[in-house]
Amino acid sequence: MRTFFSDIFYPSDAGKLTALTRFERKDETYPIIIVPHAGLSFVSEGLKAGFSHLQQAERYVFIAPLHNGAFPDSDSSLFTLSDTLFPTPYGKVAFRGISGLQAEDSILEEEYSAELTAPFFAQMENPAVLPIFTALSGAEDVKKLRRLISALSDGKTSFVISGNFAEEGKTE
Asked: In angstroms, rounded to a whole number, what is the distance separating the alpha carbons of residues 20 and 160?
């Protein structure tokens, strides 16, 4: 079972973590939000605002850049975890993998962006999440991601995009 990166990106104290992640649902919701990622104390208000407007869904797709760039000896730009349960102050969140995109879990072990959003997903009605990590390096990678998003966009899915995609995809 994974735990939060105590006192690095998240406070190890459950009360402090709860204070940074508790949000109220708004009436106006959207099937896609874009949120920042960094140390939780720096971006918690942005995450709260985004998740308060996220449309309830049967499935949530979380898309985030890999912090370590592309994996060595891989010609893929999209990766996911194996099925993983993330503990949060609100209960466990099921992160589900997708066949054909899984990387070795040891490679993604230090990828904290999914853990950053886990306490927010845990407050949704059905916190089943498909995490997709990207190592976009050009127009073809952006097109591949767009095709994957289109295939997953079935009216029962909401999307959370984390990070600086404007920088990585601005010319594509």
From this structure: 18
The partner residues of 33 in beta bridges, in order of sequence, read 160
User: In sequence order, what are the residues at sequence separation of 6 or more whose Cβ sits closer than 8 angstroms to the Cβ of residue 46?
Assistant: 35, 36
Whole-Å CA distances, 69 to 57, 74, 137? 30, 11, 9
Which pTM value belongs to this model?
A: 0.82
Chain-centroid distance, C-alpha 152 = 15
Three state DSSP letters for 92-108: CEEECCCCCCECCHHHH
The tens digit of pLDDT for each residue in 128-154 reads: 898 888 877 788 888 988 998 899 899
CA dist 76 and 92 (Å) reads: 29
Task: Round to the nearest angstrom and report the end-to-end CA distance of the chain.
Answer: 38
Alpha-helix residue ranges (DSSP H) falling in the chain: 14-21, 40-52, 105-108, 113-121, 139-152, 165-169
Token pair, residue 171, equals: 């010319």
